[in-house]
Write a structure and sequence with these properties.
The protein has a two-stranded antiparallel sheet with strand order 1-2. The protein has one domain. With 46 residues, it is an alpha+beta fold. The protein has one helix and two strands, in the order ββα.
């Protein structure tokens, strides 16, 4: 799942198809991302 951020960046997360369905996620729908700090993998491009 990739979220477009207001500042122009993106946030990508790996979630199960079951979670996508449970959260009713779909393209174009606004969402808020919460995550545990100990579970972050950071990649910088550009």
């Amino acid at each position: 799942m990739t979220l477009a951020l207001d500042g122009g960046g993106t946030l990508t997360a790996v979630i199960t198809n079951e979670s996508v369905g449970a959260l009713q996620l779909e393209a174009g729908r606004r969402a808020i991302a919460l995550f545990k700090a100990s579970s972050v993998i950071l990649a910088v491009t550009g």
